[in-house]
Design goal:
The chain is of the alpha/beta class. Helix content is 54%, strand content 10%. The chain has 23 helices and twelve strands. The strands form two sheets. An eight-stranded mixed β-sheet has the order 7-6-5-8-9-11-10-12, sandwiched between helices. A four-stranded antiparallel β-sheet has the order 1-2-3-4, with helices on one face. The longest helix has 32 residues. It is globular.
Length: 745
């Protein structure tokens, strides 16, 4: 009965702990543009509170008697009731001219600070109490394995994994945010009942905390730590490093996938779910996957990542994503498997979890807070892979000691790469495939030969992965700047004659280098494409005020005419700096009309009260986070904001070009629900901008309303615009959305 109570309580606790993370992230998306940085910052905040919770658990378990621990914790659980249900607190506007990280952290602290802190301390306390209760009832050596509480850690991660998988597939598609928050409150009340049962078992046990010390289990292989202080601290440092690497990789994989596919909660949850799965399998009583097998295959997968990190996910991300996730899984299993192998006896349980949390927090902080301010590129992902090479357990007889050869071999590989690239270029054989072969194949073979020498293997791998990234860049990058909303680059392709703005791997605008053609709108805004059609009709109807959500290079400004006002809404200050700097792009500088830049999330800015004279005749939604439109700009509430900002007779146009998400059924559902008219033009062309005079394929939709002149839609129909005849899905709301409905599988 006691074991059942402890298992159910830790299961509920872990479920609530990890349900709150995507729930809060979903609540915050409308305020911060839907970027993956929101999720990464949230994860670091939660890791910090997890560290605080584990520190509290370690302190009270070492200073208080078990019964007093129960009393104190029940008081804290009672205090949490005054901070639920979970909701947003808007005491100030989101900063638009500076990094919003501090605002986000304060918002998180107010929303879920105390609830998350208290629940995060549950797992080590419950395991500690279980050890007390079990040891008081089973004193024989035969039952020592049964008394070991570490299996509850794997059980707690089952609850966490269940929450993460349930959220995108069950909870988010079916329940609104208010219902989710109330459901979380109901689960928390069940948790208090579970703690009352656990506390009762602790109160009825006969064992005091000083009697809990015991030797490691005889059948669990582990290193015998030296009792000296230096050896103990070395062991502690090893635990921290082993915990930090998977934590860093988790956020690195999340950033990589979100950059190529889109910033959606489902893609954030998958790496975190894998992270938890590695804990479940590594700390299970029976090892399903042999640890030594994972140690052997990890270097092969790590070496392949040197090439895979350069591969654009393209039109089929599902073909490449599994390799990144598999590599992350194997590295996580190796690191967490080592932690399980080196875990201490029960009397040091809370210290072990505290140091594990320290490592997780360090890894997350490095990715979310330090790396964006330290590196202009996303280098934290490959750096974490290099670190994984350094801590890889040795299966051979070589001792992991540094020697001069550990430096000579990496330098030799670097010199070989430089000479090989020079030879390839001299022979006129340069191509992306040839360059990749030269820089990877032979160096990778040499690198793998040192797999049993972790230091040499790690340094050689670092040379391979960073040389590949350096040599295989196609365009000349003029400037790179990294901010909260990602990495933006201005690149020049002199052979094709274009200057480009790139966010992550997504093209966000092109301009001719030829001064005589610089004001021609290109890429998704070409005059022969849907945008050209919209402005041909709009200008014929004397449109005066135009709003554009999303700036890019400012290409749309070239459509402005004297006397017209174009307002550009942009959330990323870096994009504003690039687009308004004539050294990079001069669409805004030479625009015939009056162009204004408005910083901040467009939905927040558009919702502010304005005079009637500031309403728009045409509003264009061209906002992209990575390669997808942020979810909060696609809800019914967002469309109501857009509609209110339009004059009578106004028109709403939305850019829905996307490799991975099909928004047509969603917008069709909005049109049917609102009684609006919807036209679409899917302008697909072959090749890329180099082959089509700067033009790219694009898909745009236009909403017209009861007061919109019928001539607007009629003129568009003459330009190959048509109605959507396909299926319509239920419109999304701020309370409920379902990304699974629109994914292109």
């Amino acid at each position: 009965m006691a074991g059942f109570a402890f298992c159910i309580t830790i299961l509920i606790s872990s479920f609530l702990l990890f349900m709150v993370q995507p729930l809060v992230g979903r609540m915050l998306l409308p305020s911060l543009g839907g970027t993956a940085a929101v999720w990464n910052t949230c994860v670091v905040f939660f890791q910090g509170l997890l560290l605080a919770g584990y520190g509290y658990s370690h302190y009270v378990s070492s200073r208080l008697k078990p019964r007093n621990q129960v009393k104190l914790h029940l008081v804290l659980l009672g205090l949490v009731c005054f901070f639920v249900p979970i909701r947003l607190f808007f005491w100030s506007d989101v900063p638009t001219n500076s990094d919003p990280t501090f605002w986000l952290l304060v918002q998180l602290a107010v929303m879920v600070g105390l609830p998350f802190f208290v629940i995060s301390s549950n797992a080590p306390l419950i395991q500690r109490w279980y050890g007390i209760v079990s040891a008081s009832r089973n004193d024989s050596t035969h039952n020592k394995r049964k008394n070991d509480p570490y299996f509850l850690y794997a059980f707690s991660n089952v609850g966490s994994l269940a929450a993460l998988l349930a959220y995108p597939f069950v909870i988010e598609p079916r329940f609104g945010l208010t219902t989710q928050s109330l459901g979380w409150l109901s689960g928390f009340l069940l948790l208090i009942i579970g703690f009352l049962f656990c506390g009762w078992f602790v109160f009825t046990s006969r064992l005091e905390k000083t009697e809990l010390r015991e030797s490691p289990l005889p059948d669990v292989p582990r290193d015998h730590a030296d009792v000296r202080t230096t050896a103990i601290w070395k062991q502690r440092a090893h635990w921290i490093v082993l915990a930090a690497i998977p934590s860093s990789l988790m956020l690195g994989v999340t950033t990589y996938l979100s950059t190529d596919v889109g910033s959606v909660p489902m893609l954030w949850v998958i790496p975190l779910a894998i992270y938890l799965l590695t804990f479940i399998l590594a700390f299970a009583r029976k090892q399903i996957i042999p640890h030594h097998l994972l140690v052997r295959i990890s270097p092969i997968l790590i070496l392949l990542m040197a090439v895979l990190l350069l591969v654009d996910l393209g039109s089929n991300p599902w073909a490449i994503m599994p390799f990144h996730l598999l590599t992350f899984f194997v590295i996580g299993m190796v690191c967490h498997g080592e932690m399980n192998r080196l875990r201490p006896p029960v009397d040091r349980l809370t210290e072990f979890y505290l140091l594990m949390s320290v490592g997780g927090f360090i890894g997350g902080t490095f990715n979310a807070l330090i790396a964006p301010n330290l590196f202009p590129e996303i280098l934290e992902y490959p750096l974490a892979l290099v670190a994984a090479c350094l801590v890889r357990p040795q299966l051979g007889e070589h001792k992991n000691r540094f020697s001069m050869l550990d430096l000579v071999w990496p330098v030799g590989i670097a010199v070989f790469g430089i000479l090989a690239i020079w030879l390839v270029e001299s022979l006129g054989l340069e191509s992306k495939l040839m360059t990749a072969a030269v820089l990877f194949l032979l160096p990778a073979i040499v690198c793998y030969s040192f797999v049993e020498r972790p230091i040499r293997f790690a340094l050689c791998f670092a040379v391979v992965i960073f040389s590949c990234q350096w040599a295989l860049v196609e365009q000349h990058v003029v400037v790179t700047q990294r901010g909260f909303f990602g990495v933006n680059k201005v690149a020049v392709d002199r052979q094709a004659g274009f200057r480009m703005l790139i966010n992550g791997r997504t093209m966000h605008g092109i301009q001719f280098l030829d001064p005589n053609r610089q004001l021609e709108p290109l890429s998704y805004y070409h005059r022969s494409g849907p945008v050209g059609d919209i402005f041909d009709v709009a200008n014929a109807m004397n449109v005066n005020r135009v709003g554009v959500v999303g700036l890019g290079t400012g290409s749309i400004a070239s459509y402005s005419k004297s006397g017209q006002t174009f307002d550009f809404y942009e959330i990323d200050p870096v994009v504003c700096d690039f687009a308004s700097n004539p050294q990079y792009f001069n669409f805004l500088e030479h625009a015939p009309g009056d162009c204004r830049l408005i910083l901040g999330d467009a939905r927040v800015q558009l919702a502010k009260p304005i005079p009637a004279s500031w309403r728009y005749d045409l509003l264009m939604i061209d906002a992209f986070s990575s390669d997808s439109i942020p979810t909060h700009l696609l809800t019914v509430e967002a469309f109501e904001v857009f509609r209110k900002r339009l004059n009578a007779g106004g028109v709403l146009a939305i850019h829905i070009t996307n490799k991975h998400i099909n928004l047509q059924p969603l917008l069709h559902g909005v049109a049917k629900a609102k009684g609006w008219n919807l036209l679409i033009r899917d302008d697909q062309i072959g090749g890329d901008h180099k082959d089509n005079d700067g033009k790219l394929s694009s898909t745009w939709v236009v909403f017209t309303f009861a007061d919109t002149p019928a001539s607007f839609a009629n003129e568009l129909r003459k330009q190959n615009w048509s109605t959507i005849d396909g299926p319509a899905i239920e419109p999304w709301t701020d309370e409920r959305s379902n990304i699974l409905e629109v994914l292109k599988w």
